[in-house]
Automatic annotation (TrEMBL):
Domain Coenzyme Q-binding protein COQ10 START: 40-149
Domain of life per record: Bacteria
Name of the protein: SRPBCC family protein
SUPFAM superfamilies: Bet v1-like (SSF55961)
Recorded family membership: Belongs to the ribosome association toxin RatA family.
């Protein structure tokens, strides 16, 4: 009984962490999809601030080496990004200019392509929930050729978890700084 209780107590923080972010993947031929749901412990405006900080994203997102807004027309942006996607021992450099459409504080839509991906797109939807932010994210991509078969669902979930955990850390860091400075939420 004591061993079972110890195992349960040790496993509880792991189970709690897994409930914090829900990641689902699917595949239809070469088309890959991922859906993420998570509750972020920051106000909506802080989450929005971080998720749309394209000029500084390479400072807090792993695998992203450069991110810069290269064009703007109202709530439509062109963002140049360059980095390295890592899946186990596989590494793929990428560079793209992404078309970003913003609906302030609720929706971020991104579309584009690059040398390794025929098409990709994503939609992040944010809603406020008791002073926190609920994030619902869907993305799709269609890798070029042989790349599609090499990347399994576990690798996709790992990379997505890594990226969203980094976003959350940056949100918490900025929220802490704002709180320490006495800024209003």
């Amino acid at each position: 009984m004591r061993i079972a209780l110890t195992v349960l107590l040790l496993a509880w923080p792991i189970a709690a962490a897994e409930e914090k972010i829900s990641i689902r993947t699917s595949r239809q031929g070469d088309l890959r999809e991922v859906a993420v749901d998570m509750l972020l412990p920051v106000p909506l405006q802080r989450a929005w601030e971080v998720m749309t900080d394209f000029d500084r994203m390479s400072e807090f997102l792993p695998n992203l080496e450069e991110s810069r807004i290269v064009g703007r027309q109202g709530e439509r942006l062109q963002v140049r990004q360059r980095g390295v996607a890592r899946y186990g021992w596989l590494r793929f450099g990428y560079a793209s200019v992404r078309e970003v459409s913003l609906t302030p504080y609720t929706t971020i839509e991104i579309k584009g392509s690059d040398d390794h991906v025929r098409q990709f797109g994503s939609r992040a939807m944010l809603t406020e929930q008791d002073g926190r932010t609920k994030l619902s994210y869907q993305a799709y991509w269609e890798p070029n050729g042989w790349l599609a078969g090499l990347i399994g669902d576990a690798a996709v979930r790992e990379q997505v978890s890594l990226q969203f955990s980094a976003l959350e850390r940056e949100m918490l860091r900025r929220e802490s700084q704002a709180t320490n400075k006495g800024e209003a939420r």
